Amino acid sequence: MQLLQNKQRTLLILFILLFSNQVLAQQNVALPLVKSTIKGINIYGKTVDNQTRCQHWHSDLDVIAIKFKCCEKYYPCFSCHEEEADHEPQVWPKTEFDAKAILCGVCGTELTISEYQKSGNTCPKCTAAFNPGCSKHYHLYFETEDK
Ligand SMILES: [Zn+2]
Ligand SMILES: [Zn+2]
Ligand SMILES: [Zn+2]
Fold first, then answer.
1. Which of 35, 39, 43, 137 has the most CB atoms around its CB within 10 Å?
2. How far, in Å, is the centroid of ligand 3 from the Cα of 87?
3. How far apart, in whole angstroms, are the C-alpha atoms of residue 132 and residue 120?
4. Residue span of the signal peptide, if any (predicted)?
5. How far is the CA of 36 from the centre of ligand 2 (A)?
């Protein structure tokens, strides 16, 4: 009898495990969908083309995506992350400015944050022009002096 109870308990635990896995799988479906891929790198958010432009920012110069520190996913902009991610964004601390977190939508090169900030708004690889206006929004993505 004792043995049987143990067996039943094991089955119950198995059942719970299976069930919780299913819940996890369902949550995965609700995660933001990849709409655009550049050289094998997924871009999330409300992209409108294959150069990282999105519904919020889509001028000729809006050709970079930013990898968010919180989820390590590339989004075209802060608003895309805000509307599709299920969590608060985190900015990159200065100690991690050597992380590759900027994607050039034209050539698909990943730049580190320092490389990007030193780039003079031009892709060092393909010379595509980046939007200089992005620097006004650094604080949304990177740790800055004036906080
Ligand atoms: Zn995130
Ligand atoms: Zn956007
Ligand atoms: Zn480039």
1. 43
2. 30
3. 8
4. 1-25
5. 13
pLDDT digits (tens, 9 = 90+) for 103-145: 999 999 999 999 999 999 999 999 999 999 999 999 999 999 8
Contact 32, 42 (CB under 8 A): no
- For residue 76, which of 144, 141, 123 has the smallest C-alpha distance? 141
Starting from the CA of residue 115, give the closest ligand. Answer: 3
Report residue 134 as tokens.
């992005």
pTM of the model: 0.77
Alpha carbon distance 45, 80 (integer Å): 5
Write out the two tokens for 106: 């034209």
> Any idea how long the chain is?
147
Query: How far is ligand 1, taken at its centre, from the CA of residue 13, in Å?
Result: 33
